[in-house]
Amino acid sequence: MSGREPRPGAVDLSVRDTELQELMDDPACDPRALDRTFRRFAVVNALVSGWRAVWRTHVVPALPPSGRARVLDLGCGGGDLARSLVRWAGSDGFSIEVVGVDPDDRAITAATRTASRGVSFRRASSADLVAAGERFDVVVSNHVLHHLDDAARSSFLADSEQLATGRSLHSDIRRSRQAYRAYALASPLVSAGTFVRVDGLRSIRRSFTVPELQTVLPAGWRAERASPHRVLAVRDA
């Protein structure tokens, strides 16, 4: 793979490094490596994203009393979170429909490779859905916030508010030396032939601490710490 990351001790993690570009964000990146990366995300996210706990603590309490809900996954990537949400809902006695959207054709191609009952995917942005008048009980995202500059993040969060009749919940990495070191040590086990290692380390360097995120969130939003090495942006309608 092209691109390298320095060893943990050589990285300044005291501030966000917003100038870094992740390899998979390059339109000209190796399509085979990108496809393998989307496939591997299902494994990586299961290990490090902490979404199973977030489902129980933040999504379930926001579901309508009927237990039936429509959930939106913004920036769905390869679709592993959307499929997991439907699976967990079924196990816990809920019936949800998850719509995953991503403006990147490559992500939607990867997401639609696997058909899952209760899940659908579309190439679209949050602004497209707002313009179409769409509404969802809960709006979520995973690993999106650190990709966005100030203007894009403001628009994304404003769109999320418009789209959610209940809770908006955006999860991302919490930047720390411990997170960087742990990922640097463990990621080679699952990253062969993919962008998983380099992009994961760059994501950590681009990500927020809890206080940093709170300072950039609009009124009505709150930043919360979650495990392992996670930060949540949460808003209730």
Key features?
237 residues, alpha/beta, 9 helices
Structure description:
The protein is of the alpha/beta class and 237 residues long. The protein is built from nine helices and seven strands; from the N terminus they run ααβαβαβαβαβαααββ. A seven-stranded mixed beta sheet has the order 3-2-1-4-5-7-6. α4 links the parallel β2 and β3. α1 crosses α4 and α7 packs antiparallel against α8. The model has no long low-confidence stretch (mean pLDDT 95).
Number of strands: 7
Q: If strands are numbered along the chain, what order do they take across the biggest sheet?
A: 3-2-1-4-5-7-6
Order of helices and strands: HHEHEHEHEHEHHHEE
Span of the ends, CA to CA: 43 Å
Oligomer kind? single chain
Structural class: alpha/beta
Mean pLDDT: 95
Number of helices: 9
Shape: globular
Helix content: 25-40%
Radius of gyration: 17 Å
The residue ranges in which pLDDT falls below 50 over 5 or more consecutive positions are none
Q: How many strands, which pairing sense, and closed or not: the largest β-sheet?
A: 7 strands, mixed
> Beta-strand percentage?
15-25%
